[in-house]
Design brief:
CATH class of one domain: Alpha Beta
Mean pLDDT: 93
Largest sheet: 6 strands, mixed
CATH topology of one domain: Rossmann fold
Strand order of the largest sheet: 11-10-12-16-17-18
CATH superfamily of one domain: Gingipain r, domain 1
Number of strands: 18
Amino acid sequence: MNRITLLVLGIALSVNLAYSQPIIKKYRNAHPTSFAIVVDSATYQNTGNSIDKYQQALENEGLSALILIDTWNDPNEIRDELERLYHSNPPLEGAVFIGDIPIPMLRDAQHLTSAFKMDQQGRFSIQRSSVPSDRFYEDFDLRFSFIKQDSSNELLFYYSLNAESAQTIKKEIYSGRIRPPVDDESKYSMIENYLKRVVRQKAQKPTLSHAMTIAGHGYHSEALSAWEGELLALREQFPQFYQPGGSITNLYHSMRSDLKQTVLRELENPDLDLALFHAHGGVEAQYLLGDPPLPTIAAQVEAIKFFLRGKLRAAKRSKKSIAEVQSDYIKRYNIPPEWFEGAFDDSLTQTDSLAWANRDIEVTDIETLAPQPELIVFDECFNGAFHHSPYIAGQYVFGNGNTIAAIANSVNVMQDIWADEFLGLLGFGLRVGLYHRMNSYLESHIIGDPTFAFHYQGGADLNHLLIQRKAHIKHWKSLLKSDQVPLRRLAIHALSRNQGSRFTESLLEIYRSDPSFIVRLAVLRALAAQRSPEFEHILFETINDPYELVRRKTVSLMGDIGNPAYIAPLLKTIFTDPAKRVAFNAQTALEKIDVRNIDYERLPQTLNAYPGKESLEQYLSQKVFYKYDWIYKEVLPEIKSDSLQLKKRIRAVRYFRNYRLHRAVPELIEIAKEPGQQPAVRVALLEALGWFTFSNQRLLIISACDEILAQLDAPADIHNEALKTKNRLHQGANHPLTP
């Protein structure tokens, strides 16, 4: 921009401040859909030329791009503007937030996440116990009440999800964040350089032919069958990786001790288009490696010494008594005192530090790297925490390489999600934003340009289909016959949303005839969303599916439904399924169903492979029955206790959010209905009961909510939670496979 342009813009921004209206730089040509570039005034003043070129590049791709410039002192200003554009002509399909755009911090919406269940009333700060989420801007059916603006970071705005709101995520638009991992003035040059890269790559039209996947330690609890299943499913989604001219590199944490160096080297491969990380993570790190293989006793001893030195150093950092920590380990494990030696020696401290550094990818590693994949998916906790500086996904995107977009999580994420659901559609030229619009988790975000798409020649334009022909039933039915797995999976998604229960019989037929892992898993998800008798019955078939993830999700759903008819197939799975995660989840499911009155004589003959009734009784006693004893002897008495501290009573209540034990529901309801109970306990109980979305007791819970709503003298917060739980149970789980 020249000096005259800057002067005019500065005057316009001053006027804008006075009248609190955004400056809108309109598109030049009308296309079928529009796209909003939302930028704060300071960022536009510093990077306006690059933003203008980005706008033009979007127009060249067929999007009517608008630039919205303001100081943006309130997230609702942005949301209202986006909703207005969504209902305008051409309708809005997505947005990008460039620079210092307000960050909604959402509370009372943990059922919309995959794993985040932090106690909002506990010892954690309001910032740590809230979820940074742009679903605030994307889903207009979600309704929030404003709490406050953060006092230390003015970009953070706290909101509570209303009881009257939708209780599941179905986004109208998609969005992305162009927010560098720094807070100083260098952020403007990072944005400018990044946008130049985006414009350049839009002209180059990269294709999707080469990929890398990484499975870090602890992911899926080291279950190789889960890893194997995903690789087979990826082949269904991306056949081009397995054909001449393509490639896929699959790395597992135990393959080699120098995995970190291997990954960093591969990330700079100029042919690499896509990287998919499955690992544990933090805001500034990706945790790739656990303890290395220990082939000798001497190596095992050295590993214990390494661990103990780390514990002493951690005690020193947290100002705990080093002597007490050391004494505790000596007494508990009969460890020789000399194994703690050298914990604070400079040379050994440096050696240990280097050993830790070689296990994980830190944000400082990426600062000197030039990552090449245009798209990186971080199936890891906290890597996308864009309200922090630095954050590791931001370092990848705004660093020195060619990365255009990352999909990453602002808080923790569950391991057992379907992490690459819909991913194969990117091979058909689908925009990353439209792919991500089908992601229903509160914590998942696009970091970078959400309009990025790999070049694709041939076939239907999926971007056009999803935006302009989303209700075209005839066309979606024709895609069910496609020989391309991602297209059949997408057709199931579209037809399920358009036809609901009218599509049930077709889903059952597809499950029983389609050879694809991905398609059958998609059918399971679609049927689970219906919560119909047909869904509950098909689980007797899906528990034997060849795909490990179908079986794993099936046994979890059986536990969440609680039908005693599932006991026998769950027991069979525990004893016979070769996949460790499936057997473990089956045991967890069995703990939720009341099996104490099981009729051993009537169990199917298929269980005869297990050695005898006595052994089966012993197994159940050791693995399942003790859970009931614990619930009835410890947890429920703690909830009922008038003398116990309030925080301990609520902690006991929160147990039922993860472990939805159906037999306990009637007692939980009775406590929640008692007018004499502490209001905070009643609220916590009602919130916990809202997690029983598949339970065969959910109608009983809904009826109890109606009774509480009829209690005119009940406190407002109890009424609010009763209404929210009722709505949650009516609408179902946010993601049917992650209830």
